[in-house]
Amino acid sequence: MIFSSKLIEDAVREFSRLPGIGKKTALRMVLHLLKMEKGEVDGFTGALSAMRHQIRFCTTCHNISDTDVCGICASPGRNKAQICVVENIRDIIAIESTQQYNGLYHVLGGILSPLDGIGPEQLHIGSLQERVAAGTVEELIMALSPTIEGDTTVYYLARQLSGSPLKITTIARGISFGGELEYADEMTLARSIAKRLPIDNYVSVRPNP
């Protein structure tokens, strides 16, 4: 692609670094910005800069937040006896979109994948154990993507927490094996949450590690 402006070229290069954005799409975005009022562009770039520099991660559940404790953890209307364990922040957004869950969350920050060098020490497992040890949690809902890595993570967590009296469940298999949780439609995800299963029904068929 040949540009008559170095400024346009630089802007296109930066936009094309975003996932799923090729140079043609990046060029359309840049040309659209040129049509906008300068104040609107300043607001756009200012919001991005503020987001990147001021965003925090909840000290309790590791969700993204504007403050030290996210709005979900701080809400008095949430069921604090339930914690839904998810892989990443996108999964929280997906589950919240169903409007079928009113408990808390815990973001692991990934799933176990030895081939990728991701072990228990790379995940937020210790903080989950601390929350369980506090004694206020009655149920853990394992809402991890139904993949080999996701199943392995569920099995590992169940074994680590086996000495706790809390109830451990998993979302129902409305989501196909090998699928990604964030891409499930809201109705399927809502039913999976509502029809969750006891963890014993789930891990009993898992092989020993």
Written overview of the protein:
With 209 residues, the chain is an alpha/beta fold. The protein has 2 domains: 6-54, RecR Domain 1 (Helicase, Ruva Protein, domain 3, Orthogonal Bundle); 64-203, 3-Layer(aba) Sandwich (Dna Topoisomerase Vi A Subunit, Chain: A, domain 2), CATH 3.40.1360. It has helices at 6-15, 23-35, 38-54, 71-74, 89-98, 125-133, 148-160, 186-194, 199-203; strands at 56-57, 64-65, 79-86, 103-107, 139-142, 167-170, 197-198. A 5-stranded mixed beta sheet has the order 4-3-5-6-7. Strands 1-2 form a two-stranded antiparallel sheet. Strand 5 (139-142), helix 7 and strand 6 form a beta-alpha-beta unit. Helix 5 (89-98) crosses helix 8.
Short description:
The protein has helices at about 5-15, 25-35, 40-55, 70-75, 90-100, 125-135, 150-160, 185-195, 200-205; strands spanning about 55, 65, 80-85, 105, 140, 165-170, 195-200. It is α/β, with parallel strands linked by helices and about 210 residues long.
Describe the SSE topology.
Blueprint: H1 6-15, H2 23-35, H3 38-54, E1 56-57, E2 64-65, H4 71-74, E3 79-86, H5 89-98, E4 103-107, H6 125-133, E5 139-142, H7 148-160, E6 167-170, H8 186-194, E7 197-198, H9 199-203
Parallel strand pairs: 3-4, 3-5, 5-6
Antiparallel strand pairs: 1-2, 6-7
Keywords:
2 domains, alpha/beta, Dna Topoisomerase Vi A Subunit, Chain: A, domain 2, 13% strand, 209 residues
